[in-house]
Write a structure and sequence with these properties.
The chain is α+β, with helices and mostly antiparallel strands and 125 residues long. It is built from 4 helices and 7 strands; from the N terminus they run βααβββββαβα.
């Protein structure tokens, strides 16, 4: 009784199909730069074979993404189809509070500027 071989796919191709990167070339460059971990081990081979159950860790934008491969895609389809290929394990970070916005009306008029200057300068004596 022989086991069926585990279905696998190239790492760069899967990252592209799952829509983490806009082009396959970008995915290849990230993997070749040794910025991707497969099951905790760094890899620099775009042709590394991955399959369902593998965990990938890689940077995307300003965050580190952690995803578990659930399925291998047949094609690079729509985003709804791509979301079925993985489970997102990325820890949710608290977003910093937004910076307070200036409530003024923009640039002061000349009259407002003169008033500001008068209020800032001490009287001459």
């Amino acid at each position: 009784m022989t086991e069926a071989p585990r279905p696998t796919l190239r790492l760069d191709k899967w990252l592209w199909q799952a829509r983490f990167f806009k082009t396959r070339t970008l995915a290849t460059k990230l993997v070749a730069g040794a910025h991707v971990r497969v099951n905790g081990a760094k890899t620099d081979k775009p042709a590394a074979q991955i399959g369902p159950g593998d965990t990938l860790t890689f940077p995307q934008g300003h965050q580190i993404r952690v995803v578990r491969v659930l399925a291998l895609g047949e094609r690079r389809g729509p985003a709804t189809e791509a979301r079925t290929l993985y489970e997102d394990l990325t820890p949710i970070k608290e977003t910093p509070p937004a910076t307070p916005k200036y409530e003024g009306g923009g640039r002061p008029t000349k009259k407002q500027r003169r008033d500001l200057d008068r209020s800032r300068k001490p009287p001459l004596e």
